Amino acid sequence: MIIIPAIDIKGGKCVRLLQGRMDAETVFSDNPSAMAAQWAADGAELIHIVDLDGAVRKSPQNLDAVKKILETVDVPVQLGGGIRDEETIRMYLDIGIRRVIIGTEAIRNPEMVKAACKAFPGQIVVGIDAREGWVAIEGWTETTRTRATDLAREFEDSGVAAINFTDIHRDGMQSGPNIEETRKLAASVSIPVVASGGVSALADIRNLIPLEPEGVVGVITGRALYSGTLNLREAIALSKGVVSAS
After folding, report:
1. Residue 96 reports pLDDT greater than 90
2. pLDDT in the model for residue 55
């Protein structure tokens, strides 16, 4: 299981939101690339970027900040937020993003996502954000009547590299990940699943590790790292079995 530090960008700054609310932000850094450098130095194997403005405006909005991160670190980067078409996917991959995350279009236009998986093998991740089990889209501003597990099954055998699963109610709240919903989603598909939302401390990583045999291959964490309640080096060591998970 890999530990994936998150860098959420809004107005060019590194922020964290509470439950995805754009009006409930905390600015942690004016320099997202410096944060990326810190996570890389701490041993991150993958960095997760979200263009929060892009998610709302439906197109890339923080490209300069993203490019600066790519210039600063050698660690692979995945990115989501505002990716609505193949042209945007290609643009991000061309500038050095390793994997792109598609959320809203997975509901709106699943055939586009499946076509992208064929065009860019191993580089498309489906982001499934759920509120009480129902998929939320458009930067979490709209809740659909599609179950997260049903959406995940839609992409079985389509070549999706992974599913990033976020429990919105827990995102940024440091209340612990939704173990049962994450387990349920991972059990519903053979696609690797990355958990997100609610991580607050090393104990939460310890609680997620037993899900690895069921297909949970990683966990994204943000606020806990920025607030200091989780140390990235310690979390990585735990995830690799360098320290006991018991």
Report:
1. yes
2. 87
**Distance, first Cα to last Cα, the chain:** 16
Closest CA to 6 of 182, 194, 212: 194
Domain residue spans of the chain: 2-239
**What digits encode the pLDDT tens for the residues 127-152?**
998 988 899 887 667 889 999 999 99
Residue listed under structure tokens 């944060």:
35
Return phi, psi of residue 242, to 5°: -70, -30
* pTM listed for this prediction: 0.90
CATH-assigned architecture of domain 2-239? Alpha-Beta Barrel (3.20)
What residues are paired with 21 via a beta bridge?
18
| Per-residue pLDDT at 29 | 80
Burial of 58-73, coded b for 16+ CB within 10 Å and e otherwise, reads bbbbbeebbebbbebb
Nearest to 188 by CA among 101, 130, 139, 245: 130
Residue 111: is its pLDDT beyond 70? yes
> What span, in angstroms and rounded, lies between the C-alpha atoms of 66 and 77?
10
Please spell the DSSP secondary structure of 145-186, one letter per residue. EEEHHHHHHHTTTTT--EEEEEEGGGTTT-S---HHHHHHHH
Q: State the catalytic residues.
A: 8, 129
